[in-house]
Amino acid sequence: MKDIFMAHMGRLLKQKFFIAGMVLAFVITYWVTANVGSMGILHNISTDFDFSLLASLGIPAFFSVFTPLFLSAEYKGGTIRNKLICGKSRSSIYFATLITMTVAMLMMTAVWAAAALISAKTLPDAGFIVASIVKIILYNTANLAFLVLICMNITNEGAVTAIDFMSFQFSFTAVLMMQMIMGMTSSGAGKVIAYIINLIPIGQWLSISAISDESTHIPGAAQLILSVIMIVLISVYGSRMFAKKDIK
Amino acid sequence: MINLLSVGYSKLFKNLAFKVNLLIMALIPMFFSAVAVVKNPPDGGPLNGIYNTGMIFIGIMIGAFVSLYISQDYTEKTINNKIMAGYSRIEIYFADLIVTLSGALIMQLVCIAAASLIAIPACGMYTDAIGDVVRSQLLLFLTATVYTVVALFISTAINSKAYAVAVSLITVMIMLMAGIGAYDAVTRADEVPAQEVTTMDKVFDTLYLVLPQSQMYAVMNEGIPAECAVMMGCDAATITVMTALGLMMFKRKDIK
């Protein structure tokens, strides 16, 4: 597993698209945090860090494009077959890939956090910042678990790219649709929908960002538990599917 | 050309991406119609214009479907066979354009039918003037055509399937967000009392007229926008330019 991980990391750090993404993550977060406040677009803002949280949507957006482009080379170049011939187990290939993508996401989250902390003139207390970063890491890992599941189990590179990108767009739409349904239901049903919204990574982003409706908020601990459940379930299901896949 | 179209349509109706897109284009307007029906008071009357709501997603759908459809020709090397069979590149490009445009038109019709399936039985027949409906649908079809020609241009220019899909979807997404931004800026500027017009206002005004997504939002919220004719003209110009550029690029492309 370590060999596969190191090979992936070597390839990752040479990817111009990834490096460009990291630079963009810094520039966009810096600009949004420093400038959007003066535009007066949002009103329920307590500190500049709220704008950084808005900009953090760029992380799942970037990985919905980058993950398929990075991983489709595995099937296209026949690398995955070579790894199997070398005696690597399917679960080690799958989890090494997931860990590589998670490390890539951690690097981007670190860049985002650095830009946010440098550019924000007003910051909340340290506990809130740490809790937000932990939530961002966990829901983005859940998102990556889904993206990797698709990339490792579908061979058609175009379809993989389309599904991964559209999963981002449609999870956003699904969250907005569920918010519309919440407005028409009782508070009990609304609570259930709020938990369903927080099962979706983009839903968690919405509920921690300043543009969210109070009704989507659930306790922070519950958000973390939901993310961990999603990571475990999706990863286990993905690796089992990959174990049964007919690789030609 | 007829043979190319016949093969193209056969491929279109077997294309899984197209079928999935049609399903999504049916489900989304059905959801919006159902929400509107629930929110409509008992004497609220027909839900005029509800059939346009699903169209806000057509850009993304077209971006995915066109790039997957076109790149299939390159991965399966069908494009080489077409050229070897003696078809000119112009014929191939226009056949692809006609087939993908038909796909976009079918998506638009599915969107209208799906929304009406819930809205008409629940709230009665629409009372929109037929002329307005035709004009709004024509404008919406032109906006879908803009997305189609852009996605076709990108998919033809890029050989890698994954990159063709990614670039096409990102471009559509940028057009979509810029359109929404321009629409918001123009409508917000209309709400506040007259003030000095800045360069930024002029940029937003131009984007509002040119971008397909702002045109869709204008149709959805206003029925027939006041600048309908100008918008149609802008769409026609974009379609012509993008098609000409696509053709020029495709004629010079080195196909291996």
Q: SSE order of chain B, as H and E?
A: HHHHHHHHHH
Count helical runs of chain B.
10
Total beta strands of chain A = 0
How many domains of chain A? The number is 1
> How widely separated are the two ends of chain A?
22 Å
Radius of gyration of chain A: 19 Å
- Beta-strand percentage range of chain B: under 5%
- Element pattern of chain A in H and E: HHHHHHHHHHH
**Helix content percent band of chain B:** over 70%
Quick recap:
The complex is a heterodimer of chains A (248) and B (256). Chain A is mainly α. Chain A contains 11 helices and no strands.
Give an overview of the whole structure.
The complex is a heterodimer of chains A (248) and B (256). Chain A contains eleven helices and no strands. Chain A is mostly helical and 248 residues long. Chain A has one domain (2-244). In chain A, helix 7 runs antiparallel to helix 10 and helix 7 packs parallel to helix 11 (220-244). The mean pLDDT of chain A is 86. The relative contact order of chain B is 0.14. The model of chain B has no long low-confidence stretch (mean pLDDT 86). In chain B, helix 6 runs antiparallel to helix 9 (212-222). Chain B is mostly helical and 256 residues long. Chain B contains ten helices and no strands. Chains A and B meet through helix 4 and helix 8 of A and helix 2, helix 3 and helix 7 of B.
Any key phrases for this structure?
heterodimer, A: 248 residues, mainly alpha, 11 helices, 80% helix, globular, B: 256 residues, 0% strand
Topology readout:
The complex is a heterodimer of chains A (248) and B (256).
Chain A: H1 2-12, H2 16-39, H3 49-55, H4 58-76, H5 79-85, H6 90-119, H7 126-153, H8 157-182, H9 187-199, H10 201-208, H11 220-244
Chain B: H1 2-14, H2 16-39, H3 58-75, H4 78-84, H5 89-123, H6 130-157, H7 161-191, H8 199-210, H9 212-222, H10 228-252
Helix pairs in contact in B: 1-5, 2-3, 2-5, 3-5, 3-6, 3-7, 5-6, 6-7, 6-9, 6-10, 7-8, 7-9, 8-9
